[in-house]
Amino acid sequence: MKVIFMGTPDFAVCCLQKLIDEKHDVCAVFSQPDKPVGRKQILTPPPVKSLALENNIPVYQPVTMKDGKALGIINEYQPDIIVVVAYGKILPKEILTSAKYGCVNVHASLLPKYRGAAPIQWAVINGDSETGVTIMQMDEGLDTGDMLYVEKTPIGENETSEELFDRLSLIGADALAKTLKNIEAGNIEPIKQPKGDFGYAEKITKDISNIDWNKSAQEVHNLVRGLQTWPCAVTTINGKKFKIHKTALPGKTGNKAGEVVDNKNVITVSCGDGKCVDILELQADGKKRMDTASFLLGNKIDTGTILGE
User: Fold this and answer.
1) Degrees (nearest 5) of the Cα angle 154, 17, 205?
2) What pLDDT band is residue 38 in, cutting at 50, 70 and 90?
3) Which of 56, 241, 265, 272 could, after both became Cys, cross-link 285 (CB 3.0–4.6 A)?
4) How many Å apart are CA 256 and CA 214, to the nearest integer?
5) Segment 195-216, tens digit of pLDDT
């Protein structure tokens, strides 16, 4: 098929690579503008743009999709279909209907649950046992279009959003390839999403980073998993800020919420439900990430210490 691909971050790279490997005619790529990255603020192309240029695919990076210029470019190419994967821009109706088969989107949740910007992180934060990828025919709503293909996968009890992100990007690429074959063969039966409020996966911000030790051990563990690798769950230990990168549920019981009940190789902390969380990896403000056993060799954290104060 003749495809225009729209995507920006790492998650979209696998889908673009899959289209190239499957010998689709990817005639153009749309991606977000280059952005300054790091302390030196070096202007850096998004991952999708880099892959496109490596494969000699023309790249367009419009600031807006609403002034008619992007539509003009699309019409010149006359694509069979437009594939959208984490592009980051709202597409007007004129673009949604500009290709023979319209626009299809690879969305990393089991729609209608987790419409919005951060479905992977919220699935982990909320402790879901299952997620997946939905290939959707795009309409003017926010992730409300007809479902074309769904692939489910379990979420591991210790799996982080970063790990799940990597798995779903591969699952999404395979699902996209199957969907395009079925569209081309006329074997697609779109399924309308049920109407109603199924929750919105709002953008992740630092505002939700602070660990509330009054919550259950499972909720704390889920927050740590869900906020990897940005912005990371945080707490204070003896008044100093720490990012908490990795935890486990040891099955132990404790006392007061936030209290350190064990400091041998791990930091075991009591939570609001009386159960405990083991801190396995942490990072002091301005320092490198390290495993807790190594950290404790040079830092004393007494039992009875209350975290988060």
Assistant:
1) 55
2) confident
3) 241
4) 9
5) 888 889 999 999 999 999 999 9
Taking the model in full, what pTM does it have? Answer: 0.95
* Average pLDDT of span 137-162: 97
Residue type, 309: E
Q: How far is CA 132 from CA 15, 123, 177, 230, 243, in A?
A: 15, 10, 16, 21, 28
Question: The dihedral of CA 159, 165, 166, 171: what is its sign?
Answer: positive
CA distance linking residue 222 with residue 235, whole number of Å: 15
As a whole number of angstroms, the distance between CA 263 and CA 238 comes to 14
Instruction: Quote the CA–CA distance of 2 and 81 in Å, as a whole number.
Output: 7
Closest by alpha carbon to 259, among 281, 275, 242, 283? 275
